[in-house]
Design goal:
Order of helices and strands: HHEHEHEEH
Distance between the termini: 58 Å
Radius of gyration: 25 Å
Shape: elongated
Number of strands: 4
Helix content: 40-55%
Strand order of the largest sheet: 2-1-3-4
CATH class of the domain at 34-119: Alpha Beta
Strand content: 5-15%
CATH superfamily of the domain at 34-119: Glutaredoxin
CATH topology of the domain at 34-119: Glutaredoxin
Structural class: alpha+beta
CATH architecture of the domain at 34-119: 3-Layer(aba) Sandwich
Number of helices: 5
Length: 123
């Protein structure tokens, strides 16, 4: 085999290897972080973290979705359309979503990382 043919073969092999690695890494599914979300919800619940919300409230839905969805937040979420008495007794403001930590209204960032830091949870 002459030198040009050998270089051509090596270049093609190299391109093939790069293509295979690029294709594999782009088609892999992202890691599922539902375990970390469940851990966060459990930690928030252990620290008396409660969200009072309404299924008709866009801000509530955004907050709940950032924490993994309605099913995930069940331990820390109170649906005020269904539990009106509980909301009336415990809410300190007249609007949702209201976040309480140890019975105190939290008005800071609603980003999951900020919420975790507020109560000492790790994500």
């Amino acid at each position: 085999m002459n030198k040009k043919a050998l270089i051509s073969v090596l270049v093609l092999v190299f391109i093939g290897v790069v293509f295979v690695f690029t294709f594999n890494s782009s088609t892999q599914e992202p890691e599922n972080d539902s375990d970390s979300q469940v851990g966060l919800i459990d930690c928030l619940a252990a620290n008396s973290f409660v969200i009072y919300g309404s299924s008709t409230c866009p801000a509530c839905a955004q907050l709940v979705n950032s924490l993994g969805g309605y099913e995930a937040v069940t331990p820390i979420y109170v649906e005020c359309n269904e539990e009106q008495d509980r909301c009336a007794e415990n809410m300190q403001t007249n609007y949702v979503p209201e976040i309480q930590i140890n019975g105190e209204v939290y008005t800071g960032s609603r980003d999951p990382q900020a919420l975790a830091e507020q109560v000492g949870c790790k994500i």
